[in-house]
Specification:
The complex is a heterodimer.
Chain A lengths: L3 H16 L1 H8 L59 H4 L4 H4 L52
Chain B lengths: L1 H10 L1 H27 L3 H4 L3 H11 L15 H5 L4 H11 L1 H8 L5 H21 L3 H4 L14 H12 L4 H4 L10 E2 L10 E2 H4 L6
Parallel strand pairs in B: 1-2
Classes of the chains: A mainly alpha, B mainly alpha.
Chain lengths: 151, 205
């Protein structure tokens, strides 16, 4: 009787562990943790809500040193193609004063060999690779990151 | 009295019959003419050639003038054909040249179309600038702008543009089709690209 008790107990614990969601997910996904709250094989739970509108504001503060400045307006119909870059319409050095827009950083005028150019380097042409608009959305996963007080 | 009218009618019976036929023919002609004008203004007609269907129409489908929240579509003719009679006739006659180009195959591949895009676009911008963007203004009336509902950047631009006598197409190119290559001074400009000061004349200071 005394020897059977631990066995029963551990069996119960094992059953509990196996039926708890986190363990079974880990087993299904080969140990991969998912951020979306559902196993990779299963379709994601529908936690979507209405389309969010881009924030229209004054320039936003940066959250860390050397963060690419965020786009503080909607860019839905602004093409950045090999034919034309709509961003340059306002943010180029030629136009920023008139349009009261932020000018492109001088660091973007350097080509791959470190040579200074008279205008934006072709390798910095696709603005939205780094500069992205923001929407007022609740973070899906909580985090404790805090903006440094001194930047 | 009645006798006289009958006699008069009998004497001029051929002229009266002719006049009546002319009247009926006139009605048939006017109705037929308007039907042809309306038919050649439809989207189905415009994209019945693959030059339009595979190039212009495809890229237009991604724009607000094709689909939007209120479901109001501005189709080809709303922007490219005037509502007024004389400019409308001019547009129709000019468009008849498309029949020739369709047969010859001037722009029947995406590559040929791309090579001509700059020329085609500039012609259309020129037409719209010359008529003060009349076709835009058939729907968009600057007097009806509610500046409270526009973004502050739009307000700035619209007020300044309207004060300095600019017209819609001076800024709003490429809203329903893709733009041709514009030389914005980045990298090596493609040979056919349009200089920026031609594309945005107001940028000259």
């Amino acid at each position: 009787m005394k020897s059977r008790l631990p066995t029963t107990f551990s069996a119960a614990v094992l059953a509990g562990l196996l039926s708890s969601p986190c363990i079974s997910f880990a087993a299904d996904d080969g140990g991969l943790a998912t951020l979306r709250g559902a196993p990779i094989q299963e379709s994601a739970p529908d936690t979507s809500d209405a389309l969010k509108k881009a924030i229209e504001s004054d320039p936003m503060e940066r959250d860390f040193t050397l963060q690419p400045p965020l786009v503080s307006h909607a860019i839905d119909n602004y093409p950045v193609t090999k034919e034309f870059n709509k961003c340059l319409d306002c943010h180029s050095w030629e136009n920023y004063r008139k349009e009261k827009a932020t000018k492109i950083s001088l660091t973007h005028f350097q080509d791959a060999d470190g040579k200074e150019l008279a205008n934006v380097s072709a390798r910095r042409y696709f603005c939205v690779q780094c500069h992205v608009p923001q929407v007022d959305a609740k973070p899906l996963i909580a985090n404790t990151y805090q903006r440094p007080s001194v930047r | 009295m009645i006798q006289q009218i009958i006699q008069f009618g009998y004497r001029f019976r051929f002229i009266l019959a002719g006049a009546f036929s002319a009247f009926v023919l006139g009605i048939v002609f006017v109705v037929g003419f308007n039907a042809v004008m309306d038919e050649t203004n439809t989207e189905e007609f415009c994209i019945s050639c693959h030059e339009m269907k595979d190039n212009n129409y495809r890229e237009y489908q991604d724009t607000l003038h094709y689909a939007n929240r209120s479901g109001m579509r501005a189709t080809c003719s709303d922007c490219h054909v005037s509502k007024e009679f004389v400019p409308k006739m001019i547009a129709k006659v000019k468009a008849s040249m498309d029949l020739y180009h369709s047969v010859v195959g001037t722009i029947d591949t995406p590559e040929k179309f791309a090579a001509r895009r700059s020329e085609l676009a500039r012609r259309e911008w020129r037409r719209m600038k010359d008529n003060d963007s009349r076709e835009c203004r058939n729907c968009h009336d600057a007097d009806s702008f509610d500046y409270g509902l526009q973004g502050y950047r739009s307000v700035q631009q619209h007020e300044e543009g309207l004060l300095t006598g600019q017209t819609c197409i001076d800024c709003h190119q490429g809203i329903a089709h893709r733009l041709p290559a514009i030389d914005q001074g980045v990298g090596v400009a493609s040979p056919a690209s349009i200089p920026e000061n031609v594309f945005r004349p107001q940028a000259e200071k």
